[in-house]
């Protein structure tokens, strides 16, 4: 119940509408839209790992919650990538009213084809797609890294075993840390965490 109130409170404060799940275009490769709980985003914002001079990409941004929240809380620039046109339209509707909209760009694009800008140094995933697509996305990120060598941090909220197994095989990725979120929810679910990897 406390979670629900927090969800509504933040949406109101940010002047956006991002609650609810959407399975309408989900399949074996692209997973349903489900927003990251605000309590998890608060923890990420409070970690100090994302600041105003950073540029964040949110893959599978849905209605843009991560983008508008992180831009508001940390003053970072944020780029949301969404492939579902209907959900993208909702993110754009939010952009018209969001308090932090001047720092947010929402792109209608397939993640695996999106060219990562050289300014991007923080990347967020909440299980938006299958490992097959993730592999192509990581290849795009590495291309961008080699064009402009910099430290890039990747944040994986609620990571699946498949994701973790794959990430551990990528030579350029180093496990950096994790943010434990188990105490925010009932049930002590070991997946309730943000795993952080770094390319440097």
From TrEMBL:
This is Class I SAM-dependent methyltransferase. The keyword Cytoplasm does not apply. Keywords: Methyltransferase, Transferase. It comes from the Bacteria. It comes from Eubacterium album. CDD domains: AdoMet_MTases. One of its GO terms (molecular function) is methyltransferase activity. It holds the Pfam family Methyltransf_31. Residues 51-141 form the Methyltransferase domain. Coiled coil: none annotated. Gene3D superfamilies: Vaccinia Virus protein VP39 (3.40.50.150). InterPro entries: Methyltranfer_dom, SAM-dependent_MTases_sf. GO terms for biological process: methylation.
């Amino acid at each position: 119940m406390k979670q629900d109130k927090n969800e509504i409170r933040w949406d109101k404060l940010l002047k956006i509408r991002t609650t609810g799940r959407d399975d309408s275009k989900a399949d074996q490769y692209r997973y349903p839209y489900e927003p990251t709980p605000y309590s998890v985003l608060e923890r990420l914002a409070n970690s100090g790992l994302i600041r105003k001079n950073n540029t964040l990409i949110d893959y599978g941004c849905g209605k843009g919650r991560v983008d508008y929240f992180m831009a508001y809380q940390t003053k970072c620039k944020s780029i949301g990538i969404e492939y579902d046109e209907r959900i993208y339209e909702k993110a754009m509707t939010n952009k018209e009213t969001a308090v932090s909209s001047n720092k947010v760009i929402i792109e209608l694009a397939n993640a695996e084809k999106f060219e990562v800008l050289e300014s991007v140094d923080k990347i967020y995933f909440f299980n938006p797609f299958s490992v097959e697509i993730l592999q192509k996305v990581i290849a795009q990120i590495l291309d961008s890294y080699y064009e402009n060598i910099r430290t890039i941090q990747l944040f994986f909220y609620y990571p699946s075993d498949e994701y973790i197994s794959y990430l551990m095989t990528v030579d350029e990725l180093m496990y950096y840390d994790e943010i434990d979120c188990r105490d925010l929810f009932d049930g002590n679910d070991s997946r309730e965490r943000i795993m952080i990897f770094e390319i440097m």
